[in-house]
Amino acid sequence: MTERFVEQFTMAAENVGAEVHQLPDLKAFVAYLAERVDGGLLLSPCPSLERAGVGNALKTAGLKVIDSDFRVHGAAAVAGLSGANFGIAATGTVVLESTAEAVRIVTTLPEKHFVLLDPQKIIEKAERAVPLLNDFHQQLPQAYLAYITGPSRTADIERVLTIGVHGPSELHILLLEGLSDDLMER
Question: Where are the extended beta strands (E) located within the chain?
């Protein structure tokens, strides 16, 4: 079932301008970022990324990882890296809890946004998440969730579609198994 959802998710996300890559391991993930990030990389606070040792692996590879003072460094960073709570196969959407200001800065200010997602956390349709989200909002009624479908886009200027005006112009969704199977953990 997961393989079918991954295929559907990939097709839907690519149809709206995202790049999706399934990576075999952390080493391949680090190599992918090293090829595409030339400058500061904002690293979002995220339990599954911390557990996997992503920050240390990126620093060891020589990337300029920024994991604090996001307000100071946010505008100058070329890329942001976040985890995702889950993905929605039908639309190619990644969903992430974004209550913390750091998460919102990482996912909206840099030109490139990289999202690390465990393929086990791709669900078929948004309706599957409703019970989880109801529980989530009952426990944390003031929390934010972000639904990200493709790079930032707008058509509010003379109805001409423009990419990257209100957020990143590139969205890279990187699928890596073994991060977390908890849909409400980034």
Answer: 19-22, 40-43, 64-66, 79-83, 86-88, 93-97, 112-117, 122-123, 145-148, 153-154, 162-163, 170-175
Q: In this structure, are strands 86-88 and 93-97 parallel, antiparallel, or unpaired?
A: antiparallel
Rounded to the nearest 5°, which phi and psi values hold at 149? -125, 100
Structural domain contains residue 110 = yes
Q: Is pLDDT above 80 for 154? A: no
- Domain tally, the chain: 1
Query: Residue 164: what pLDDT?
Result: 43
Q: In whole angstroms, what is the distance from residue 129 CA to residue 110 CA?
A: 28
Tokens of 133: 């989200």
Domain containing 95 equals 2-175
Percent of the residues in the chain that have a pLDDT greater than 70, as a whole number: 89
In whole angstroms, what is the distance from residue 163 CA to residue 18 CA? 12
pLDDT(36) > 50: yes
